[in-house]
Write a structure and sequence with these properties.
Length: about 70
């Protein structure tokens, strides 16, 4: 069942790409300096951002399933 390993690699690469495409709303220096008071502000994601958030969640679950399945098959 080596195909599961290949699927896990493909899903991992796609997960990395979707996470890298997401835009960060906060600057890291604001988090450590305390300048920004609304660090965890509720904001609706729409359009491409929403697609990338959902795709990364689905890919993360798929990666977990494929890794567990691969571990059990070997």
């Amino acid at each position: 069942m080596i195909w599961v390993d290949y699927l896990a690699i493909i899903v991992a690469i796609l997960l990395v790409i979707t996470v890298l495409l997401q835009h960060s709303q906060d600057n890291i220096k604001d988090a450590f300096s305390g300048e920004k008071s609304e660090l965890f502000k509720n904001r609706k994601t729409r359009g491409l951002e929403l697609f990338l958030v959902r795709a990364s969640a689905v890919l993360a679950v798929l990666l977990f399933v494929f890794v567990v399945l691969s571990n059990n098959l070997h």
